[in-house]
Amino acid sequence: MTVIVVMGVAGSGKTTVGSALAERLGVEYAEADAFHPPANIEKMSSGHPLDDEDRWPWLHAIAAWISEHQATGGVVSSSALKRRYRDVLRTGGDVWFLHLDGPRDVLAERMQGRTGHFMPVSLLDSQLADLEPLETDERGLIADILEPPSAIVDRALTELAKEQP
Ligand SMILES: Nc1ncnc2c1ncn2[C@@H]1O[C@H](COP(=O)(O)OP(=O)(O)OP(=O)(O)O)[C@@H](O)[C@H]1O
Ligand SMILES: O=C(O)[C@H](O)[C@@H](O)[C@H](O)[C@H](O)CO
């Protein structure tokens, strides 16, 4: 079964939309940040962006989760900012990306509005600089974060259903 990867920069709604999508589908949800080694979380918490070397082991761990969930399906979040990161995730098996995309001011406001999250708003611009949006030849959908989460979930399920035989 297809595993859905909910992608996008910090604050784009991956956790909110991903967990709602998993609930609607009755499949397991896994949180991207749970796959980061503690050093990565510490680095971001102290205001330093991750680089490719920091991200490879994390991406491979998520690809392993994708592989383990091919039989049941599942939803996993992952910022998956660059196309070559998504190539690593695709090695895990059948994946479909839901890219949550939206304006910087809304992202900053949403990051600012949540409490107790390790990710500083100061890292948003580095996230946007790294972002290579989902391309037309990559399986998936780009959704607008100005839509409510339930509408994004509806649209994702409709698009995904169109692709199933
Ligand atoms: N479509 C939406 N409309 C309105 N508010 C939203 C939407 N999606 C998420 N939010 C709110 O925006 C904030 C950020 O969302 P969330 O934590 O799910 O993002 P995230 O991409 O998982 O972030 P991170 O990767 O930094 O952990 C939360 O307070 C959430 O309630
Ligand atoms: O690749 C990265 O830079 C990271 O995965 C980040 O995107 C954060 O962990 C996440 O968004 C939490 O705010």
Structural overview:
Belongs to the gluconokinase GntK/GntV family. Keywords: ATP-binding, Kinase, Nucleotide-binding, Transferase. It is a single chain. This protein is an alpha/beta fold and 165 residues long. Helices cover 47% and strands 14% of the residues. The protein contains 7 helices and 5 strands; from the N terminus they run βαβααβαβααβα. Strands 2-3-1-4-5 form a 5-stranded parallel sheet, sandwiched between helices. The protein starts with a strand and ends with a helix. The model has no long low-confidence stretch (mean pLDDT 97). Residues 10, 32-33, 50, 55, 79, 81, 119, 127 line the site of D-gluconic acid (GCO). Adenosine-5'-triphosphate binds next to α1, α5 and α7.
TL;DR of this structure?
With 165 residues, this protein is of the alpha/beta class. Helix content is 47%, strand content 14%.
